[in-house]
Protein 1
Amino acid sequence: KLTELNANHVLHPMSMPAFDNEQPLFVERSEGVHVYDNTGKQYLDGLGGLWCVNVGHSHPKMVATIQEQAAKLAYYNTFGDVSNRPSVELAEKITGMLKPEGMSKVFFTSGGSDSVETALKLARHHWRLKGQSDKTQFISLKNAYHGVHFGGTSLNGMQNFKQNYGPLLPGCSQVDGPFPYRNPWTNDLEELGQICADILERKILHDGANNIAAFIAEPIQGAGGVIVPPANYWPLVREICDKYDILLIADEVVTGFGRSGSLFGVRGWGVAADIQCFAKGISSGYIPLGATVINDKVAEPFLEAAPNAFVAHGYTYSGHPLACAVGLTSLNIVEEENLVENAGIVGDYLLQQLQPLVERHEHIGEARGKGLMAALDLVTDKQSKTPVDPASGYSDKVSAICQENGVLIRSVGPKIILSPPLTFTKENVDTMVNTMDLAFSQVSL
Ligand code: PMP
């Protein structure tokens, strides 16, 4: 009955049309690193929901916060001069965590796409207030994912996320980012970082710095396949943005609050962005919440122009008290339970344990990652590194066998993506990797 109603009435993200009456996985309950379906079967959650359940499922402190705050104040708006305690406390917490980067002000949103859209609008508005109203264009990276709104869609690097939605926002273009495993230039990481930084600089010179508002990138590309840039790339990008007076936006929707093994993605490269976009881990996915955080440099013209710098941008749920209370508890748990450190240690172990799979299985070209975000790159053969055709269903079959065996991983085109809760243990890694090993042994291309 549920299956039939689902097929008849629910449009599922990223899988339309899902009208084939296939038996979906009905997730009914969750606890810690596990979820349970409607038959009571247990699954190890190798996805953290969708890169987001950082503190683990059904954490008692999260449940208590939801109950207490819902009983006190679930919702009121924060437009203009209206405020509430949870949103102020969460803003204090986030800016405290981001003190080394000099981030000082938080704009709350309802999710990652909203945070990206907010960043783009704040960037344009910033330059307009500074009298540089030609600075409207944005540069992003090939292979990037910045969400579903038209700004983000226009900046997405992956064609499948944009090809049906034109005309897109003018003034958005993509340049090559460093992809160590698959690039036409070099195997030398430092050289690769320099080549891609040069590409960005040439693009800025070509389009004219006076026309460019910002460069936006994920510290580690997530949906594009967990692509970790070389050590010199982010510092070089920071230098270039400073040289040409272009704002640097870090889309930390996946990397924010610990997933990459440092509290923030760009911090892992010793770099501070001007604007950071957050969602997912900010509330561990228990409730929709996002945030766009800016430094003093970005905030300055708004403060100078006050009270005339009217920001005509805000979400009904900006500063949502229930969401912000949950966010604060989530970030406190990340600190109390040393989850950033755990993500680093267990993440290193995960990468180590994935290597034998690369050696053992013909169609795994590479295992890569940082912290508790990892990917397997699936190839037709290891010499050519040609990605397997997603239409072959190869990676879907691998993930289906894992699911049968009680482990949830994600197949995205020619990649397998792993992003478990930051509470994952080495034992959990062993279970996940052994199950994947079994699945790869059973599937052929
Ligand atoms: N930016 C990045 C880097 C993301 O990974 C995502 C979502 N996976 C988004 C933005 C969009 O976030 P949301 O789905 O919450 O709108």
Protein 2
Amino acid sequence: LFLDQPLAQDAHLTLDGPAANYLGAVLRLKPGAQVKLFDDRTGEWLAEIVTAERRAVTLAVTRHLRDREPVPDLWLLAAPIKKGRIDWLMEKACELGVARIVPVLTRRTIVDRLNHDRLRAHLIEAAEQCGRTALPDLADLTPLDTLLKAWPDDRQLLFADETGGQSFGQAVRPGPAAILIGPEGGFTPEERDSIRAIPKATGVTLGPRILRADTAMAAAVALWMAHAGD
Ligand code: SAM
């Protein structure tokens, strides 16, 4: 369970709201039950339930289980897609291990506003489910131009290009990287030119078929992880 507060040995915590409801009413945990907690800073801890009531659960932190995990330095830059699909994208990006997600505004992006809290809730749920002790950062919706203008010299930009490019095996270099996935309508020719003008950009292919943006994201992140994600 993720807690948005720093955890420490022997700390006593009182949870209310959804966290208390989840432990007390959904899982029906009783005093003495053990729960794993993480805080995105100090790693994972074991805690024991001291009291469990409908609206409040108290816990005592008993043991440090592991440090916050090192996360491969991969950013995912993706144009937001419609609701159910972007929720899926958050979940899979978190499970597959990305460090940072940047929703990108492009000419053909169909969504121009994001519910940051809802998307972050999906990241937290996915982290809890897959045992991540570090949450991915979630940036605000950022225009593609703004990202490209300030592109860091040391970060490889792998641009998923449905018109063809290098294979991941050929393209991936050691070190910080980002994968850029376009919107369902693809990038405009001008956007393609600005992406290609970045010295650190490499066009990569995910095969001969046109994948939906969410499929392209999962395939690209999995391929990068397989080549560089230790
Ligand atoms: N509108 C485009 C078209 O019809 O040609 C397709 C865009 S595709 C649905 C969405 C994004 O997924 C693309 O911008 C690209 O980043 C990525 N993508 C899809 N298929 C891909 C492939 N085979 N190789 C690399 N990237 C791909």
